[in-house]
Automatic annotation (TrEMBL):
PANTHER family found in the cross-reference section: ARAC-FAMILY TRANSCRIPTIONAL REGULATOR
Keywords of this entry: DNA-binding, Membrane, Transcription, Transcription regulation, Transmembrane, Transmembrane helix
SUPFAM superfamilies: Homeodomain-like (SSF46689)
Name this polypeptide is given: Helix-turn-helix domain-containing protein
Membrane-spanning residues: 6-26, 35-53, 94-112, 132-151, 172-190, 202-222
Transferase is among the record's keywords: no
Pfam family, one: HTH_18
Stretches assigned to the HTH araC/xylS-type domain: 275-377
Length: 390
């Protein structure tokens, strides 16, 4: 009874995985990372269905043996998918394709050998007078796959240094996906190294792990598709986190300033003012994610002194101070012909704002009116001036 239930679950998981692998690639959003994920899910689905088929019928069809080469792409696809998702600016080079060379070699061998399952010593080409231990080869392959999974598990899913902020659901998906991939290859390595010496059926454990990955991907694809397709429509959690980072002053920074009674001399005030103005000449605030530590490094002013100085001298929190500089720069560029070709949202991105919502809130807060109202008032003033001169 339990065996039948497990077999049904494995089959359903395999079919769901195949469907999801097609859906996420057909959407044509986040195309590179979703292609990698699609290949990974497709390979796992085929493995799940193929394993169920062979265990039920108790024989291995030679025609299907090329599918075994798909096992070689699971680890590199999962690793590269996670790496690309957490670092969208990553550009893939030609050498990244070397990750798929073992799968290609295995596929070529099985196809050119009349779809026979690979001979234990096939990689020696039978010309070399040398006997290879197939057991050792299996251990080596499993160890390499485990190394991929371990490296994947070390990737940071929210990296503020690279200006990457993922939604809570996407972070959860990546963590679970990486954990299950790592668990799968740990199980495979133990299975290859020790076989059944532990008295544990690792085939069932591995099938359950694969099914969990496929069913998890299916849940995300049907109930939380923004996890895979969030290029244009940012998730609400993402915007909330983004606004906290870009708009709100650091809680630690605010507490630090309150805890210390900082008194700056007139000489120090003039010195800090000159240092800040000099640092802002190159407009570093146009960089997305520009924070108080960045300005501290540019000016050599301690963070808590810098925060206190901006609060007292400019009567603004640091982020409002930076947003004001961005808005002032934007207003200066409004008469530029190239600048006019940009949409308002494009202009906001160009001056360092990370989202339309953040830009509108900052503009309204600092200028007392929305961007459209401000532009209308500028146009009306220009018309009045034109009429007066005419």
């Amino acid at each position: 009874m339990i065996t039948n239930l497990l077999s049904t679950m494995f089959f359903l998981a395999g079919m769901i995985g195949l469907i999801v692998s097609v859906i996420i690639i057909c959407k044509k959003e986040n195309i590179l990372q979703n292609l990698l994920l699609s290949l990974c899910l497709f390979a796992l689905s085929c493995s799940c269905i193929y394993g169920l088929y062979t265990s039920s019928l108790h024989f291995y069809p030679n025609e299907a043996s090329p599918l075994k080469s798909l096992a070689f792409i699971v680890a590199p696809c999962a690793y590269l998918y996670t790496k690309k998702t957490t670092n969208p600016s990553l550009v893939f080079k030609w050498y990244h394709s070397l990750n798929f060379l073992p799968a290609l070699l295995y596929l070529i061998y099985t196809v050119t050998s009349n779809s026979q399952i690979a001979n234990p010593n096939f990689w020696v080409f039978n010309i070399v007078d040398y006997t290879t231990d197939f057991y050792a080869f299996n251990i080596l392959v499993s160890l390499v796959w485990l190394l991929y999974a371990y490296t994947q598990a070390l990737i940071k899913f929210s990296n503020t240094d690279k200006l990457v902020l993922l939604s809570a659901d996407k972070t959860l998906w990546l963590k679970c996906f990486s954990f299950l991939i790592l668990s799968l290859f740990i199980g495979l390595f133990i299975q290859k190294a020790y076989g059944l010496s532990f008295g544990v059926n690792f085939n069932i454990i591995n099938d359950v792990t694969i099914s969990a990955i496929l069913l998890g991907a299916g849940y995300m694809a049907f109930y939380k598709p923004f996890v895979f397709f969030d290029t244009k429509n940012l998730h609400e959690d993402y915007l909330k986190k983004l606004e906290v980072i870009t708009e709100a002053p650091s809680i630690n920074e605010a507490e630090h300033c309150k805890a210390q009674a900082i008194v700056l001399s007139d000489k120090k005030i003039l010195e800090y003012s000159a240092q800040i103005e000099k640092a802002l000449i190159d407009k570093p605030f146009l960089k997305k994610g520009f924070v108080i530590r960045d300005l501290s490094e540019l000016t050599d002013i301690p963070v808590h002194h810098l925060s206190h100085f901006i609060n007292s001298y400019y009567n603004l929190h640091f982020q409002d101070f930076i947003n004001k500089k961005r808005i002032e720069y934007l207003i200066q560029q409004l008469d530029d012909s190239e600048w006019k070709s940009l949409s308002l949202e494009g202009q906001a991105w160009a001056v360092g704002f990370k989202s339309r919502t953040t830009f509108f809130r900052a503009f309204t807060k600092l200028m007392g009116k929305s961007p459209s109202e401000y532009l209308n008032s500028l146009n009306e003033a220009k018309l009045k001036n034109y009429s007066a001169t005419a």
